Amino acid sequence: MRAAVQHEIGQDKLDVVDDIEAVGFGPGRVRIRVRATGLCHSDLSAMSGVLPQPAPFVPGHEGAGEILEVGEGVTHLKPGDRVVVCWLPACGSCPACKRGQSQLCLAGFMNAGTPNFKRPAGDVFGFAGTGTFTEEVVVDAASAVPIPDDVPFDIAALIGCGVTTGLGAALNTADVEAGSSVAVIGCGGVGISAIQGARLKGAAEIVAVDPVDSRREAALKFGATKAVSPDELPDAKQQITGGEGFDYVFEVVGRSATARTAYENTRRGGTLVIVGVGAMDDFLQLNMFELFFDEKRILPSMYGGGDVLRSYERTVALWRAGRIDLESLITHRVPLAGINEALDQMRTGVALRTCIEM
Known about the structure:
The relative contact order is 0.16. The chain contains 12 helices and 19 strands. It is globular and about 60 Å long. The strands form 4 sheets. Strands 4, 6, 7, 10, 11, 18 and 19 form a 7-stranded mixed sheet that branches. Strands 14-13-12-15-16-17 form a 6-stranded parallel sheet, with helices on both faces. It starts with a strand and ends with a strand. The chain has helices at about 40-50, 95-100, 105-110, 155-160, 160-175, 190-200, 215-220, 235-240, 255-265, 290-295, 310-320, 340-350, and strands spanning about 5, 15, 20, 30-40, 55-60, 60-70, 80-85, 115-120, 120-125, 135-140, 145, 180-185, 205-210, 225-230, 245-250, 265-275, 295-300, 330-335, 355.
């Protein structure tokens, strides 16, 4: 079977091999034939070491496919079922799940330390306990979420991470108020989804902030009312808010520098939403006086800040109704053999989402 493998953390290229095998099938587990998978910036972060991940590993966590085989005890799935891969499945019984915060369940993270694959040279891990840059993957049954037959695999793959994260940040975490002003810093697939969420909630002004021209142009098509480069943000703040700052600012980059910029462009009493995933040694500096005096709410948003299964269902309903555009998020398509081309598209910012077709 083929898969894209990272042999050591820090390598910037993946090796497409054909001697890998998915392992771990048994009770409570399912085998999935991956049909489409998206490239998310978190995959790059794991490759570079920003996110902790044992190596060698198969990146990818935003995938969809069909069930090939179900293990003993799995009753809600059967061979042939179409599913989206959920990298953060809820166990349903931990304190976080019982509080209704299933996005904070740690059960899925526990799978990240168990090899999902093997090669003649030894064990291979799957990123975030999954690893979708492969033809087949074995995961817990809770990580395989059924999707309706009318949802294409490429659309379902996006719902598995980026779209759910961005939409949820606006709909769940921020609960954007109608008529408000919004700025989104970082307009890749997740940032564009946050823009669509803010539009759905009725934001009056939505400013997209990104250094890449093509992403700014795309943001306007998805609902932004203005698109600026980072250097132009101060002028936009002055023009739209009279210098006061935006009601909501979404940081979708995952760096302390942009988080600080987001904080400074949030009005007093406004809301800063941290969506980007950053490094453990990258610290955001705030002084105690400004925290007290400005009374800005700082809200981290993990996987969209809500129940994942409900978020999936809501996204499908909104897509069916034509309220959100998911097809246009996929700007590039490559086969698995072209995975390194997809990596370059992500790094340079020319792609909102690249779909790897299996």
